[in-house]
Amino acid sequence: MTQPDDQRWMALALSLGRRGLGQTWPNPAVGCVIVKDGRVLSRGWTQAGGRPHAEQVALSQLAPNAANGATAYVTLEPCAHTGQTPPCASALIEAGLARVVVATGDPDARVSGRGLAMLREAGLEVTTGVLEDEARRDQQGFLLRVTEGRPLVTLKLASSFDGRIATAAGESQWITGPQSRLQVQALRANHDAVMVGGRTAREDLPSLTLRGMGARRQPVRIVISAGLNLPTLGPLAEDTSGAPVWLIHGANAPQKARDFWADRGATLIEVAQDPSGLDMTAALRALGQAGLTRVLCEGGGSLAASLLKAQLVDQIVGFTAGVILGSDGLPSLGPLDAPKLSDAPRFALTETRRVGADVMHVWHRADK
Fold first, then answer.
1. Which CATH fold topology does 150-365 show?
2. Does 180 show up as a binding residue in the annotation?
3. Superfamily covering domain 4-142
4. What's residue 204's pLDDT?
5. Catalytic residue chosen out of the listed positions 55, 125, 132, 171
6. Assuming Cys at both sites, which of 86, 166, 211, 359 could form a disulfide with 330, CB separation 3.0 to 4.6 Å?
7. 55: annotated active-site residue
8. pLDDT at 22 > cutoff 70
């Protein structure tokens, strides 16, 4: 049974869990708050690399017996299996808690329902579903990896008012302003990986690293290039930041190119290919199998279009500048092959706000 302050404390736990987004893969980013007599005793969130878990962090801050009779607010069902650490459900029981409030369940077969059952069997009161919609939104990447075998995909589009990303001559820096570019860094910070297509890698020579966000785990840098036709000079080949490079390619990628990138420490992932390009569903599943839960796609237009056509884009974050480039400018998306309006991908607006001189708007798949 819910209590008057349950939503208040769960909202705090959710805000803590979000601190781990982009840092905890392959584990979920969870928040935990322990409360007694209307006062917060401790709080925690899943640490970088996925351990220790949020519950363990919060419990470690307490003196012996301090949690007796307290309530723990946890954003995801506590784990019930022994991995590199003991089950969090057991730790909550041993701490003497009287009640555990959980936002949403964990579909992982090792956990699903078992964590809640362990708590109830030990005599703890268990309440579920508090702020569940918010929790499932935060956990969407982890939930997708467990249920569909792939990570969440966020498509970032920064364009002119008329949807162009470069002039007819190819000039693109900078359409949006510095505040929008800083916001893109924040997006990178809460995703596990940043992904671009081969053309973007060749033309822009991007570093794809996280900058200006303090000491955080660098996102994996992913490039989609069927033939590994990528520059052998520049940030991807020469960067020493320690950010991993993963290259997704087809079966016909030359051995010389494979050897070059392997020698530089890149991870090579081969996926199926047909005349239209690489199988993006297979590519995303390979990334999910490797543990990724959240991927930020930053272009280019052909890659974005292929993801949209395959219905693999879960949310779009757009940055629109007040500049007009005209129909001869480079469009932000390649062809979608949608002859009818009813065939076009459709998204629902969930947020809009001003960022410097630009407008940021966030959209989620209308069918999710």
1. Dihydrofolate Reductase, subunit A (3.40.430)
2. no
3. Cytidine Deaminase, domain 2 (3.40.140.10)
4. 86
5. 55
6. 166
7. yes
8. yes
